[in-house]
Write a structure and sequence with these properties.
Elements lengths: L2 H11 L17 H11 L15 E5 L11 H19 L3 E5 L1 E2 L3 H14 L9 H25 L10 E2 L3 H16 L3 E11 L4 E3 L4 E15 L2 E5 L10 E4 L14 E6 L2 E9 L12 E2 L6 H10 L25 H14 L3 E14 L9 E8 L12 H10 L4 E3 L2 H11 L4 E2 L1 E2 L9 E4 L5 E3 L16 E3 L3 E2 L1 H5 L2 H9 L1 H7 L2 E7 L3 H16 L4 E7 L2 E2 L16 H8 L1 H10 L7 E2 L2 H24 L11 H7 L6 H22 L3 H29 L4 H19 L4 H8 L16
Parallel strand pairs: 1-2, 3-4, 9-11, 15-23, 22-23, 24-25
Antiparallel strand pairs: 5-6, 5-14, 7-8, 7-13, 9-12, 10-11, 14-16, 17-21, 18-19, 18-20
Helix pairs in contact: 1-17, 3-16, 6-12, 9-10, 9-14, 12-13, 15-16, 16-17, 17-20, 17-21, 19-20, 19-21, 20-21, 21-22
Length: 742
């Protein structure tokens, strides 16, 4: 007999079952109402939890999603993981703070807004900066609620009373104070270094804002005096006057470091100097290379090591400069074949071949990155401050190597330490208008630099000149978000900071371990002298069933809100977490979500059957095994003993998994017990036991006791259906603050 048929039979016999439970669980009829119940209760705010003053704090600062971007399945994953941890620890009696926020997302949001302007036949380059900023701010604020509403739909039990935006004036003030402290400590400087430049968007980009695409290009082998050099970019070669050779390359042993050679080149005769450097790759081309320090990171590094000069060949718009002679003013792609033709006429083209290689492009517009040397603000990463305190890098590596901060999974700790060994100074300025302006003014007469975090200085403190110019750049978003854990708490109050900092867990994707996590550790330790969190949990990337990256262009992306509409939030959450080991990418197919909807329905039908079988609502208030033992009326059957032993094992093992942040293993344990051991085995056995005068009362007790524990165990994972079932069980308080089973 199916559970539904058993339910229908028992319902007619049992006065306790005049409870409205539909024959199937309909998430759309439940989720909005349940979430409002939670919000109205005030229990998302840790200050409202019914806890003793000495209760342990448990804090997670939410990685702020883009305030202007639609929810994607990666957001659903991190919200699910963090909500599981918060709900579990809240049930463990801890004072849980999950602080939400949204990100202005500098460059990314500006690109979206500029596309909007293009459709309106407008451009930011034809607008005043203040006008542009005002419009984009209103644009983001009008869309921000979409992101926040999506977070709520995923069941996030975060404290909305502390919700904050990355451009909140309180956050900006803290970011400015950090910049000022770094500057005064000698750890911020303005310098000329090479960086990624997007010629379309007219800004420097971090490595995270670029990607690599495989493209087919022509490799040109060119005669440079006695050498053959290989390049795909002949347009950068106008200013070349150094030939680099590996000192270990025996093919070129006759050439000495510093030796001069005369040769014919693109625009006539030139003198080149031999430079011996191990960066010259003996396996690439002929092993000989010329360098363009202004337009290549490798070449720039070589020039820095040997104190070589370099010239700018290509401007920030991707056009050749005067050094290119007759090609000046031309775009790179138009000039390239003409340059090769001129070299061919001079007999300087040895051969050509088609190759496939990875090309660095802007991740938003796919424009090939044009490395440029431009003035930028940098944070010194490996330098002691003027007081002799450890460098930012050392602050971070010491926190991890000492065990103060644990990175999960462990393999990412090794990756972290490797990255930190090879750290460059961090460029924190961007040539965009949307973001936090850099609080610097320049004295035009004498070149003095003035850090003005209050924007109140009208004359130079050193020379009293009033001819001041504001720095036009904004901060890299990672600079402000690198301060997120302490800034969010300080922004609310010193009391919040003192109470909830350091935070407990920072949960985020493995792909931003260096770009975000490392910087939070560095800036957190630097600014507060405390670690920002004790654990870092790195989740993987959500991929399709074939483990391919999800994207709209491929047509394989899963819309989280769409599947919530179809299958319910709990099904999506459980599907996301079920196979999610820390650090591993997650294959996700719609079939998997559909399967977890079936599991939700199974739990619903289990509850309907148990409620229909138990005629004493007090049985659903049994809170411990001791309470249960006091109510047992007769000797337990072997089936009774087996299910109780299995329940205790499930509680113990799933608790251990959750404490170790193995959420997927806890989910699998609970699933196995609820579906296979309780529903498939014990409920089937209960049919006959309920008919036995000797065993029926014990069976009702066990059904009730096991059900309430399953509901508690599942609550962090599937909060909506469990709270809805809980509301049918004559309970005195919400499941969200009910104690975790022991």
């Amino acid at each position: 007999m199916s559970i539904n048929l058993i339910y229908n039979y028992m319902e007619n016999q049992n006065p306790f079952t005049n409870i409205d439970m539909a024959s199937a669980y309909e998430a759309s009829n439940v989720e909005k109402r349940i979430y409002k119940t939670w919000e109205d209760s005030g229990y998302f705010n840790p200050d409202n939890l019914p806890l003793p003053d000495d209760a342990e704090n448990y804090t997670i600062i939410m990685p702020p999603p883009n305030a202007n971007a639609p929810m994607h399945v990666g957001h659903a994953l991190f919200i699910t993981i963090e909500d599981i941890l918060i709900r579990y620890n809240r049930m463990q009696g801890k004072r849980t703070l999950w602080l939400p926020g949204t990100d202005h997302a500098g460059f990314e949001t500006q690109v979206v807004f500029e596309k909007k302007l293009e459709k309106e036949d407008r451009s930011r380059f034809k607008m005043q900066r203040d006008e542009f900023y005002k419009e984009i701010y209103e644009f983001v604020q009008s869309n921000k609620h979409i992101t926040e509403d999506s977070i709520k739909r995923l069941g996030a039990s975060c404290d909305w009373s502390r919700n904050i935006f990355t451009l909140d004036p309180r956050i900006v003030k803290i970011v400015y104070e950090t910049f000022s402290k770094l500057y005064n400590d000698g750890l911020v400087y303005r310098g000329n270094r090479i960086g990624n430049w997007c010629t379309k968007h007219q800004t420097a980009l971090s490595d995270l804002e670029t990607k690599y695409e495989e493209r087919e290009d022509t490799m040109y082998y060119l005669k440079y005096g006695p050498f053959i050099i290989a390049t795909t970019r002949p347009e950068t070669k106008f200013g070349d006057k150094y030939v680099t050779l590996n000192p270990n390359d025996e093919r070129y042993a006759e050439y000495k470091d510093g030796q001069k050679i005369e040769l014919e080149w693109i625009n006539g005769p030139t003198t080149a100097t031999i430079v011996k450097d191990e960066a010259s790759d003996m396996s690439f081309g002929t092993g000989a290379m010329t360098i363009s320090p202004w337009h290549s990171q490798i070449d720039f590094d070589i020039a820095q090591r040997h104190n070589l000069d370099g010239e700018q060949i290509i401007d920030k718009y991707g056009k050749l400069l005067d050094i290119a002679g007759e090609f000046a003013g031309m775009k790179i792609n138009a000039a390239r074949p003409l340059i090769i033709e001129k070299l061919r006429q001079k007999g300087l083209v040895e051969k050509e071949e088609k190759i496939k290689h990875n090309v660095q492009v802007c991740y938003k517009c796919n424009t090939v990155i044009e490395p440029q040397i431009i003035p930028q603000w940098f944070v010194a990463m490996t330098k002691e401050n003027k007081y002799g305190d450890p460098s930012l890098r050392d602050l971070a590596t010491q926190a991890v190597s000492s065990g103060e901060i644990t990175i999960i999974p462990e393999k990412h700790e090794k990756i972290f330490m490797h990255w930190m060994e090879n750290l460059r100074d961090w460029p924190i300025s961007r040539q965009i208008w949307w973001g936090i302006p850099i609080p610097v003014k320049y004295c035009e007469e004498h070149g003095h630099v003035i850090v003005d975090i209050e924007d109140s200085i009208t004359s130079c403190p050193e020379c009293e000149s009033t001819n001041l110019r504001r720095d036009p750049d904004t901060f890299d978003t990672w600079f402000s978000s690198g301060q997120w854990p302490f800034a969010t708490l300080l922004a609310h109050s010193e009391k919040d900071f003192n109470k909830y900092y350091p935070t407990t867990v920072m949960e985020t994707g493995w792909d931003i371990l260096f770009f975000w996590v490392a910087r939070m550790i560095m800036l957190g330790k630097y600014r507060t002298e405390k670690i920002p969190f004790s654990k870092v949990y790195m989740h993987g990337l959500v991929r399709d069933k074939d483990r391919q990256k999800m994207s709209k262009s491929k047509g394989n992306a899963i819309d989280p809100l769409g599947v919530i509409d179809q299958y319910g939030t709990d099904a999506l959450r459980f599907a996301l977490i079920f196979s999610t080991a820390a650090g591993n990418d997650i294959p996700l197919a719609e079939e998997k979500i559909k399967g977890m909807k079936n599991f939700a329905n199974k739990i619903w039908n289990i509850a309907r059957y148990v409620i229909a079988s138990v005629d004493n609502s007090e049985y659903f208030k049994i809170s411990s095994l001791e309470d249960f033992d006091h109510k047992v009326k007769a000797k337990l059957t072997d089936d009774d003993k087996n299910i109780l032993e299995s329940l205790q094992r499930t509680i113990k093992v799933s608790t251990e998994h959750l404490e170790a942040l193995r959420m997927h293993e806890a989910a699998q344990e609970i699933y196995q017990f609820a579906w296979h051991e309780f529903a498939d085995v014990y409920i089937e056995k209960s049919k006959n036991q309920l008919k036995s005068p000797e065993n029926s009362e014990n069976t009702k007790l066990i059904l009730a006791y096991v059900l309430i524990n399953i509901i508690k165990l599942l609550h962090p994972f599937m909060p909506f259906i469990t709270e809805e079932i809980w509301s049918k069980l004559n309970q005195e308080k919400l499941l969200i603050i009910t104690a975790w089973p022991k």
